[in-house]
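Reopening this one. Same input as before:
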Amino acid sequence: MRSLAIFAFWFALAVGAQPVTAAPKVIAVDVDGVVHPITVEIVASALARAREEHATLLLVRLDTPGGLMDAMRSIIQAFDSSPIPVVTYVAPSGGRAASAGFFLLEAGDVAAMAPETNTGAAHPVAMGVEMDAVMSKKVENDAAAYLRSICGRRGRNSEVAETAVRQSKSFTEREALDQHLIDLVAGESDLLGALDGRVVTRLDGSQVTLHTAGAQVEPYQRTLRQKIISAVADPNIALLLLVIGGLCIYLEFSSPGMIAPGVIGAILVLLGLAAISVLPINWLGVALLGLAFTLFALEAKFTAHGVLGVGGTVSMVLGAVMLIDSPWPAIRVHWVTAIGVALPFSVITILLLTLAVRARRNKVETGSEGMIGAVGTALTPVALEGKVFVHGEYWDAVASQPVTAGARVRVTAIEKLKLKVEPVTDRKGD
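Same output, byte for byte:
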């Protein structure tokens, strides 16, 4: 009996000493909205975290209408160079991976879609210019070849995938599965179970078996900078920030010492510039905006009967619409926004500039300069010296011509605390 107890004791120790195997980890990152340079940064950061934490895979959840081709290619290059398997997944139900999103879906080691989702419609669109037939065909062929290369490396149906580029075809999740564009269809709760045990062939020829049963999914948390830039990366928001910030800064310069408008304006302008910096800028749009400000300034300075102001308003609207060089409506300044911003901004700017110009042209009413031209009364005879009463004050004065007591005089100059006056011979200036 004693031997049995000792055996049981040592057996319990041996079992307790066995290392506890940690649950596999999956890092999930969302690519939602338009694909642009900040999306590249987010995906790259998520890949870096997955690598550092030895995650089983990186799950890229797609729900995007498309985006910039350059940004899309950068993300695919990050997928290709990742030591961690990448699973691209169109979700949630009702989501889509269109245009550039279709390329991203096909670039995953495993491509999956949730029920009631769709993908495709990947025909390239010109970047802000009208292409002739030859150039359009070149761009189309380039995109088709790139997609064939992606599908060929991943073992998917490149012929069907190419129709999404050449014919703008779209596919439901079932159509994509049946035509071998994706590897599986699964709901979000079933995805990890469906991936468990799947063997993935990497681009270097190595094979990796996915162990996702009971995996812990940890969403990638965007940094504060990424959250802010993503929130303001909409060109319409960026334009509003720049315009409101510019008006606040002008208000601070026109009324120094208020402080708050200057601080708020500087913050808004910097946020607007940060948003614009991640988007493709059309320099013709920038030039038109610069022309608009010039015309507003000229309207305030010269009598043009509103012609310059109208020209500035039109220039500002066109400049705002053309500011972002993109074929995607989601990353362009809309006409409604451009007009809604330009009209009130034009009126406010012209009004403020006009007031500033008039204030500078007005005669100075304070200080020594304000005394020149003022009319007063001689209290004593004035020649080489005398007393005058001007602006409710008594002054020592000298006159270029003798002035009798009680006569009206006009100030012509001031030296220190003595006025130079002349007699008023008519009622001009009274």
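So the earlier flakiness isn't reproducible anymore. For the record, The chain has four domains: 21-222, 223-279, 280-362, 369-423.
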